[in-house]
């Protein structure tokens, strides 16, 4: 398939294109936002909860809300992407190995996976985070990524079960190919589109979970601007000056809508076999 043909087919998927545009715009804002902000993220520009500073007013300390919104997306973006990648890699390995192995090993892996699925994601993260004085960014990445792995594993196993029994897999085995090569060269390439859709969905959940962790007071850097943490910091003055809460909520909402639309668009492409 040529690049031009692939581009035309993707262009016909309005959800995918719309989601991609939204996600790219928010990502660019999160990356270059600190350089566009009129004030520093911790700079006091006026009295708390007044319309001083720029057009969104000030927060609970008198810091400019707009500047903190522009500076607060980088941490959520990086942690969410890394956690999604980690969860996808672990889940795919677990699911494909279980499906390809079969028998008692498949049964043992999936029953352990069911036990992991029984724990609510956010509750498990909070249980660990409350045991440390100050959570580091890598710790949040691990917690969110590990919480995604069982769900990805179940999806990956379901897809792999329909592939490992096909003739081209048996042919590769008959030619003496190693199990690892069969998985990498024969099984995984036939799972690309559904796994991309699942990755978009996992990214959506990662964004919500990382923001939720920040809202509950477990941000990696309490002094830095963070969209989730901003909601918690300014919620008591929601009726006085709501922008300290509404601005990060709106940005997070738009970001999750964009990633959801991307996931839906990729899933539609996969169903149509394009």
UniProtKB/TrEMBL annotation:
Please identify the protein, giving its name as recorded: Peptide/nickel transport system permease protein
One biological process term in Gene Ontology: transmembrane transport
Q: How does it sit in the membrane?
A: Multi-pass membrane protein
Record bears the keyword Signal: no
- Tell me its family: Belongs to the binding-protein-dependent transport system permease family.
Q: Which GO terms describe its cellular component?
A: plasma membrane
Can you name the source organism?
Pseudonocardia hierapolitana
- The membrane-spanning stretches of this chain are 16-37, 76-100, 199-220, 240-263
| Listed SUPFAM superfamilies | MetI-like
Subcellular compartments: Cell membrane
């Amino acid at each position: 398939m040529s690049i031009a043909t692939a581009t035309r087919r993707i262009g016909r998927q309005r959800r995918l294109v719309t989601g991609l545009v939204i996600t790219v715009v928010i990502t660019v804002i999160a990356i270059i936002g600190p350089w566009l902000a009129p004030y520093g993220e911790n700079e006091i520009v006026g009295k708390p909860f007044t319309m001083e500073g720029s057009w969104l007013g000030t927060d609970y300390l008198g810091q400019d809300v707009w500047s903190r919104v522009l500076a607060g997306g980088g941490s959520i973006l990086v942690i969410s992407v890394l956690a999604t990648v980690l969860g996808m890699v672990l889940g795919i390995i677990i699911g494909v190995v279980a499906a390809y192995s079969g028998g008692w090993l498949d049964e043992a892996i999936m029953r352990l996976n069911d036990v992991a699925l029984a724990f609510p994601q956010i509750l498990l993260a909070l249980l660990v985070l409350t045991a440390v004085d100050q959570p580091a960014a890598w710790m949040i990445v691990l917690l969110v990524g590990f919480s995604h792995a069982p769900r990805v594993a179940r999806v990956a196993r379901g897809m792999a079960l329909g592939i490992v029994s096909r003739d081209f897999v048996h042919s590769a085995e008959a030619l003496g190919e190693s199990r690892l090569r069969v998985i990498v060269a024969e099984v995984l390439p036939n799972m690309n589109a559904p796994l991309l859709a699942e990755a978009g969905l996992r990214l959506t959940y990662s964004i919500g979970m990382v923001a939720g962790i920040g809202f509950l007071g477990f941000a990696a850097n309490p002094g830095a601007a963070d969209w989730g943490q901003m909601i918690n910091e300014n919620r008591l003055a929601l009726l006085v000056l709501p922008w300290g809460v509404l601005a990060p909520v709106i940005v997070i909402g738009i970001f999750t809508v964009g990633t959801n639309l991307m996931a839906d668009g990729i899933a539609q492409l996969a169903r149509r076999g394009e």
